[in-house]
Amino acid sequence: MPRPATFGIWTELRPGGGRQPDPGFYAERLEEAVLAEQLGLAAVWGSEHHAVEDGHLSQQLPFLAAVAARTSRVRLGTGVLLLPLYRPREVAEQAGVVDLVAGGRLVLGLGGGWVEREFDAFGVDRSSRGRLLEEKLGVLRRALAEGIIADGPDGPDGPDGTDLPVGPRSPQAVGPPIYLGGTAPKALDRVARLADGWFALAHYRWQKTAEAWPVLAEALERAGRPAGGFPVVAGVTCGSATTPSAPGPPSWPRPSATSSTGTATGPPTATSPAPTRSTPAASSARPCSATPPRGSWPPWPSSRSSSPSPT
Fold first, then answer.
1. 65-78: average pLDDT
2. Rounded CA gap, 32 and 37, in Å?
């Protein structure tokens, strides 16, 4: 039986209006994260892009560590971290530190990425992003659960084939839950086979999430996993605000510095907007997303314990 939806915020930390972020802007975003917890929201999600000129957040885990130090209950998630661009060891080590600061509240949302310049910036072949995501996910899961890098494409990373330890370790038994993003059929098949949940940030196209759900449900059935209760993070725009300096008609939604998000389990359904506030620093269009209720983390839904190994 699906659990009720809850709500959180999703943030990309872009000031907008051609400005770059400054310390005051980041301080305000941290205040918003604290406010989200005070309002009873369930999660704070980050975002990332690289090689852009608009000040978009590029490294989520340092920001989430700062949120973790200022909060005590709200869940913290990467929404999403572009795993093909990184070494699994680096992600596992940073995630372990953040989750220790957070007391076991971290959720890792991962994606394959799509913007060509980001792959150029990291020297990664964009055409291999699907394969790299699956390979690195397998390595990352073992690093988080067992504290070793042993089964990656290059094998163990120690001299003479030895396994070097990965740490510090997350306080969650097998590491943070891992959600995967994407709405294409191949991506949804990957979610069904390898993930603990689906990160379906739809922005202004929530219908895409609803239309993709039957495809994911079929993929879950093929993978031998129940669709009922499978966690879904569905981010949609709930409202918008404009600033006088923003270009274009006032009716245009603006990119948000902080956006409402919502996470649910089971088929995506329409939900009410989460309470939000506007800040002078940001012209914001605020998507809603939902997150499994606090009581379900940990333990994670039963689908997690039966999640097959990606290797």
1. 98
2. 9
Largest CA distance in the chain: 63
In this prediction, residue 43 carries a pLDDT of 95
Pick left, alpha or beta for residue 104 (phi over 0 → left; psi -120 to 50 → alpha; otherwise beta): left
Alpha-carbon span 230 to 240, nearest angstrom: 30
163, 150 contact by CB (below 8 A): yes
| Residue 128, token pair as written in the block | 């291999």
C-alpha atoms less than 13 angstroms from C-alpha of 172 in its C-beta half-sphere:
28
Q: What is the pTM of this model?
A: 0.80
Query: For residues 193-205, b (16+ Cβ closer than 10 Å) or e, as one string?
Result: bbbbbbbbbbbee
Domains of the chain: 6-305 (3.20.20.30)
From the list 42, 46, 100, the residue with the least C-alpha distance to 68 is 100
Across 2-11, 122-131, 250-259, least confident range:
250-259
Q: What is the 3-state secondary structure (H, E, C) of 116-167?
A: HHHHHHHCCCHHHHHHHHHHHHHHHHHHHHHCECCCCCCCCCCHHHCCCECC
